[in-house]
């Protein structure tokens, strides 16, 4: 299989480059002049409360919505000009569960691989690599409906990795999971960054999923309020931690919006 990591037109291009992206649902602005980057090999957290615009942005990156304002590039490939090349390098775990409950783990993964032109033989070898060491290796023939929420999520992550993408998007991947399952999913994705050198954009509203080593993009009401390492964001806001920094940024934004509406 072609190594997509070496096929980029610009080896120095970021994994994801968002430039001045906007989107509206009628008169309501969901995203307004959003710009940020996900460096290669990084775990970047898109942190924002529900309704911040995270899912809308993911819909634009995955081309579920057309980008009418701004530019999106994946590993140097412009999403509007060369969508096929850009999306080949992308793996996605959506917030909503998207596995076929009546198919087995193996059938779900082989079917997804076929969409990328990957033969079943290669897909089966790849799923063995991805799931090595997990309890799912011995359950490939089980139907997805018989799995726990955390196990289903791990299968979705395996599906997103089956074609060896270099960038993975995860939209609120731990919603509805218990504390232990949440911790296992976060740890698994961090391992992928560390060992497989993939780049990750992890969207969440949960502060405790942010690690001190992460990059953070704070999104609130469709606007980027901060971007950088956790240490940078904390320092810039003059706070003692990312929780206080997030609270200060969003409260300041709400106050500013109130003043605009009153004027």
Characterize the structure shown.
By secondary structure, this protein is an alpha/beta fold. It has a single domain, classed as 3-Layer(aba) Sandwich (Rossmann fold), CATH 3.40.50.300. 37% of the residues lie in helices and 24% in strands. The chain contains 8 helices and 10 strands. The protein has a 6-stranded mixed β-sheet with strand order 6-7-8-3-9-10, with helices on both faces. It has a 4-stranded antiparallel β-sheet with strand order 2-1-4-5. A hairpin with a 2-residue loop joins strand 9 and strand 10. The longest helix is centred in the C-terminal third of the chain and has 21 residues. It is globular. The termini are far apart. The N terminus and C terminus are likely disordered.
Characterize this entry briefly.
The chain is of the alpha/beta class and 263 residues long.
């Amino acid at each position: 299989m072609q190594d997509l990591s070496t096929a980029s037109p610009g080896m120095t291009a970021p994994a994801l480059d968002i430039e001045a992206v906007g989107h509206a649902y009628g008169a309501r602005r969901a995203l307004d002049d959003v710009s940020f980057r996900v460096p290669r090999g990084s775990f970047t957290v898109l942190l924002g409360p529900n309704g911040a615009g995270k899912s809308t942005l993911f819909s634009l990156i995955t081309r579920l919505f057309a980008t009418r304002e701004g530019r999106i590039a994946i590993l140097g490939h412009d999403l509007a000009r060369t969508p096929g090349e850009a999306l080949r390098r992308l793996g996605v775990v959506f917030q909503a569960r998207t596995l076929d409950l009546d198919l087995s783990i193996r059938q779900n993964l082989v079917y997804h691989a076929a969409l990328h032109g990957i033969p079943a033989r290669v897909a089966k070898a790849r799923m063995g690599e991805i799931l090595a060491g997990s309890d799912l290796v011995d359950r490939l023939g089980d139907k997805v409906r018989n799995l726990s929420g955390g196990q289903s999520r791990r299968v979705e992550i395996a599906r997103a990795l089956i074609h060896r993408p270099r960038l993975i998007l995860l939209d609120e991947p731990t919603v509805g999971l218990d504390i232990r399952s949440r911790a296992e999913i976060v740890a698994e994705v961090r391992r992928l960054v560390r060992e497989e050198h993939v780049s990750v954009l992890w969207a969440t509203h949960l502060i405790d999923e942010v690690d001190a080593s992460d990059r953070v993009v704070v999104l609130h009401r469709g606007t980027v309020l901060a971007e950088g390492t956790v240490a940078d964001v904390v320092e810039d806001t003059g706070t003692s931690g990312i929780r206080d920094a997030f609270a200060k940024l969003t409260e300041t934004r709400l106050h500013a919006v109130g003043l605009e509406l009153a004027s």
